[in-house]
Amino acid sequence: MNKRTKSVVGAVSAVGVAVAGAAAGYAAGVLTAPASGKQTRQRLGRAIGEKTADLKHNARKTITRARNAMSDTMASAARRAKLRAV
Asked: What's the pTM value of the predicted model, to 2 decimals?
């Protein structure tokens, strides 16, 4: 695994941990807030929907970056292989 690929994998892990932590913190805050059960469930449902959308968006961006990094790595390896063959 090259340096660029490692950084993409690290970014994916960091994003996942950050999102999970933020979601847990938000849920804890909502559940301990002084509101009715119905209001709390509605707020929590909206927040989960928003965070899920954010997570999907960030995952798509990260996957695209990872694919691009892999493509770049493969192209670079192919160029190096051509140069060595000559």
From this structure: 0.50
